[in-house]
Amino acid sequence: MKPFKIIPLILSAILFCQCKKEDVLPNAPIVNLGGENWTRTNLDKLIFENFTKPYNIEVKYKWNPYETNFNRTLVPPSESQVVPVLRALYEAWMVPFEKLGGKNFLKDNPISKFVLIGSPEYQTDGTIVLGTAEGGTKVTINNVNEFILDNEASLTEMLTIIHHEYTHILNQTFVYPVAWQRISTRWYTPTWFNTDQVGANQQGLITPYAKASAKEDFAETVAFLLVRGQDTYDWIKDQYPDAAPIFKLKQDIVEKYFKDAFGINFKELQREIQRALSNLFFSSRP
Hints:
Elements: H1 2-18, H2 42-55, E1 58-60, H3 79-101, H4 105-108, E2 113-116, E3 121-122, E4 128-129, E5 131-134, E6 138-141, H5 152-173, H6 178-181, H7 197-202, H8 214-228, H9 230-239, H10 244-262, H11 266-283
Parallel strand pairs: 1-2, 2-6
Antiparallel strand pairs: 3-4, 5-6
Helix pairs in contact: 3-5, 3-11, 5-8, 8-9, 8-11, 9-10
């Protein structure tokens, strides 16, 4: 029993030594505890010169828990992944929209902040979130650490995320037509993930996620047409003749939306983005 008697005496001595009257807590502020300041690197300079200065776009790649969903386990992006992602974003999103919409298009219809996250965001229903648009101006891109610039599937996935989320941003300025909501209403469901690609296509939806809601259907259709291209869209339309009129109607509405809202010829935008994707893929290969 002696050890149990000694421990309280030791603890009392420690507390007595640590709580002497002359010991006071420091009142000077602790600077940079949360990493608010850091040495500006060449990457930071590149971002400033190519995104912040000309477009007022902030790119956040250094870890900041306040910019993420703190209810999920996420990891920071690797710095080596930032430039490839930004190159894809610049060449296959920014340049085509500026060319077809005018040099001020991205300033008039801005994304003010990109937040890069290294990992995907896993949901409790088994799905993953690869990107989000918030507040009409902020876009979060997840799974950056898995991006491979010279891999066609990876490049397609990344650009689909960007164009999907940017469509949501554009819809904040000009809402997609009301007629869109009447096309596939009966198929929209929060359990969209229970439908596979074939099932969605048979119902006239371009991807399973298009079943989530009318706004997701619109964004998925726009992104698919721009990134996967007209040939792939037409191939799916031809595979499902019963759904072909729905796919045609949806493309017609998309094209009219871009023309009426922004004065953009959607088919020309398609071609510019397809050209940019091809150049990115082949120019980045060893």
